[in-house]
């Protein structure tokens, strides 16, 4: 009787544990993907609404700005030598730098034709767990999109939508296209995938300097792109990295870049 009770209890325990394991696998393989797809779609919709409703900066009116005003222009008569001009020249004012990206907020949408015609993910500021559940993450402190330096982005290989599941398929020459709502930025992959360890932080330096000398192939300042993800596919002991450079830009008003349709 006692033996039967023990066997029955063990059987029930095994069934319970097995059910929990199955539910966990379903959560990891399916439900996190559903959540991520919904969150990324919301992020893209939010960005597109923001871009659509953003005020358009007015161009300076003809005859305004530095160098305009009395005593300037093609029809003006220069003041006689030794006499003051009608108005002192205006000092040129350097444009103020753009504000830093807001942590957790969407900054761009990325397209990688090599990973699929419908592959499209938002890029948010930061690489924390909460951010990477919604899309790709921009390493804080790396360059802004399109600027000199290293625009660096991380993404999950598996779970939360598997954005970089096919990361190993990336090859030199592949296009990585991003938009911030006003401009298309087309980067071209130069090197990778390169396998390294999480502590190899030089991969996202302004001029990438990975542990393996010349792995990135860059020797001086430029407008670079770094993409990173975990390796192996279902682990995180290592990282896969690809590097690229800014190949072209064009205004959004000019239509889609050719790289998306090739």
Number of strands: 8
CATH level-four homologous superfamily name of the domain at 30-52 and 103-260? Sortase
Name of the CATH architecture of the domain at 30-52 and 103-260: Beta Barrel
Shape descriptor reads globular
Q: How much strand content do the residues show?
A: 15-25%
Classified by CATH, the class of the domain at 30-52 and 103-260 is Mainly Beta
Order of helices and strands: HEEHEEEEEE
How many helices?
2
Cross-sheet strand order for the largest sheet: 1-2-3-4-7-8-6-5
User: Structural class, please?
Assistant: alpha+beta
From the alpha carbons, calculate the radius of gyration and give it in angstroms. Answer: 26 Å
CATH topology of the domain at 30-52 and 103-260: Sortase, Chain: A
Q: Major beta sheet, specifics?
A: 8 strands, mixed, barrel
How would you state the average pLDDT, rounded?
83
Residue windows where pLDDT falls under 50 for at least 5 positions:
17-31, 58-84
Helix content: 10-25%
| Cα separation of the termini | 73 Å
Q: In short, what is this structure?
A:
With 262 residues, the chain is α+β, with helices and mostly antiparallel strands.
Outline the structure in words.
It is a single chain. The protein is α+β, with helices and mostly antiparallel strands. Helix content is 21%, strand content 24%. It contains 2 helices and 8 strands; from the N terminus they run H-E-E-H-E-E-E-E-E-E. It has helices spanning 2-53, 129-132, and strands spanning 106-111, 120-125, 136-138, 149-154, 175-179, 183-196, 223-231, 238-251. The chain has an 8-stranded mixed beta barrel. A hairpin with a 3-residue loop joins strand 5 and strand 6. The radius of gyration is 26 Å and the shape is globular.
